Amino acid sequence: MPDAARDAGHFDYVLNLSAIASVTASALAGDAAAPEGELLDLFLEAVTSQCGYDFRNYQRDSLQRRIRSLMLHCGFHSFAHYQRAVLSDAALFERLTAELPVGVTSFFRHPAQLRQIRDEILPYLASFPMIKLWSAGCSTGEEAYSLAIMLDELGLLERSHLFATDVSPYLLELAKAGLFPAATLDTNRGNYRASGGSLDFDSYLPAGGRYLRAPERLRLRLLFHRHSLTGEGIFNEFQLILCRNVLIYFDADLQRQVLQRFARSLHVDGFLVLGPQDGLNQAALAQGFVPWQPGSYIYRRGGACHE
Questions:
Q1: Which residues contact 153 (CB under 8 A, 6 or more apart)?
Q2: CA dist., res. 163 & res. 291, Å (int)
Q3: The pTM is what?
């Protein structure tokens, strides 16, 4: 969170006059619904200009649903009151920026795709003296730790740099801690086996009470870093980029921009992995990506389709 946002536990915001006018009008109208139209535009503009979190090109219906859900969970039935509160209270603002990006993740999620990465992509990348991987939109870190486990089993972890980024400092702190709910253990075991894991998932994340704890040797290989896919550029050259089920919440123009950033961030012999639910195959092809295999949602910057 920006330093300017931390002062006696609250923000010092000055909204522009048009935003104040819209909020006042909304309050007078007794608006009990999530914002839409110009009101939503002004709110997102205030968040972006004051704090740098840019949600302006997220899909609007998704934003409205999540803002309404947050309003109700926080006890607000008027968006006017919620906006005033969230722009002046650090805890409410942090919760907003943590929950708007829709962080859906789990260990070895989409295991069939990860098995393909384990069996085909990582052995190909083993020829590099140093492998750089990027888990973009990592949420609480399960995907990044899953990658670290696969690299470890292939003997590649010690010469890999694994970057994991998210827009939310709150989610990144959870990821760095390496603690995960033990209630997910059975699902994690099944996904691990389905992804081609040959050892014991529990040996990597042993249960201790209510939590699974990632060992230090995995945590030390991961670099968690705040990065916004919507407004910040590239910061390295990677042989493997994973961004699964994040871009589905962006509008088409922002999807195109992010795919262009990935293309510039990818080594000429590298791979981009998108989520099966993203629906971005045509957008990826338009940006010059070529499927590794038909229907795999794994792409390269150029070259023939791998059969």
A1: 118, 197, 198, 199
A2: 24
A3: 0.74
